[in-house]
Amino acid sequence: MRHVAADLFDPASVRDALRAHPGITHVFYAAYQDRPGWSELVEPNVTMLRTVLDADLPELQHVSLMQGYKVYGAHLGPFSTPAKESDPPHMPPEFNVDQQQLVEERAAAAGWTWSAIRPSVVAGFGLGNPMNLGVVLAVYASISKELGVPLRFPGRPGAYDALLELTDAGLLAEATVWAATDPRCANEAFNIANGDVFRWNRMWPVVADAFGLELAPALPMSLQDVMADKEPVWDAMVARHGLAPDPVLGRVLVGVRRLRPLLGLRHVRRHLEVAPVRLPPLRRHRGHAARSLRRPAQAADHPRVACARTIRGGVGWASVRARRR
């Protein structure tokens, strides 16, 4: 996998970056730029996507758009569950909806297909990616241990006892590739989830035990406030334990501050990743049947993939690069 630097706000930058990589057939789009308000998210995120779609990609066959449960209003409060891809939209603004409308229009005009992937909260291994619940919890628990305080659930009242679900990053990668390569999946949206549920009141003691921490009653707190001064604590831990300094992971504290929406850093750069990738066909899946996915024989062709994503924060899903070992 090769990283190719490009500014997704600059059409010339994207054209120059892709000029040396002809033959791209599949675009996995997961770039994201954060803004303070919901309405402010629309313009930059639609603009970046439009810049990619405006690039010269004569052999383009499919665009995969990474979304999430914000499509159903998860960021606004409780929403109807289990969510269905056919559920009606909520009151705008919602940049995910605007992005999908743009993709649908371009696909209809150009003749390529699209898919929209909607995971729940994602957890998995992704070095340097603060958009990862596992990493965020690990940093929060490690700092609690460093400061000698018990582990407290910081969420809102009711969240500790509510049913939740996750999406494994590996499963997300498989489902993303499947939706982009199986002709039966063309021009559809797909919810991707592990298929099991849990409650924090059962999971939080497990997290505390894993880090050797005492468990204390839940205490709602603003992590944006209490984590604002913790970067020196993290830096000291890195030095004492001989950890490799990582400018992205060090700034995951910003992601911890915003644990509830699980949004990380403001973006410093935007990257395109271009690589020849073997994309295997995966059998059909919808919604919570995600665990039924299996790895069949590899596909014979090797389409070239361009993955637009962000680094140093935001939705930089490492797994949607569909990389096969």
Treating each run of at least 4 consecutive H or I residues as one helix, how many helices? Answer: 10
Structural class: alpha/beta
Which H/E pattern describes the elements?
A: EHEHEHEEHEHEEHHHHHEE
Q: How would a crystallographer describe the biggest sheet? A: 7 strands, mixed
The CATH superfamily is NAD(P)-binding Rossmann-like Domain
Q: Averaged pLDDT, please?
A: 80
Strand order in the sheet with the most strands:
1-9-10-2-3-4-7
How would you characterize this protein structure?
The chain is an alpha/beta fold. The chain has a single domain, classed as NAD(P)-binding Rossmann-like Domain (Rossmann fold, 3-Layer(aba) Sandwich). The chain has 10 helices and 10 strands. Strand 5 (121-123), helix 4 and strand 6 (163-168) form a beta-alpha-beta unit. Helix 2 (42-54) runs parallel beside helix 3 (95-110). The radius of gyration is 20 Å and the shape is globular. Residues 257-271, 275-302 and 309-325 have low confidence and may be disordered.
Please describe the topology of this protein.
Blueprint: E1 2-5, H1 11-19, E2 24-29, H2 42-54, E3 62-66, H3 95-110, E4 113-119, E5 121-123, H4 133-146, E6 163-168, H5 169-181, E7 188-192, E8 197-199, H6 200-210, H7 223-226, H8 231-240, H9 247-250, H10 252-257, E9 269-276, E10 304-311
Parallel strand pairs: 2-3, 2-10, 3-4, 4-7, 5-6
Antiparallel strand pairs: 1-9, 6-8, 9-10
Helix pairs in contact: 2-3
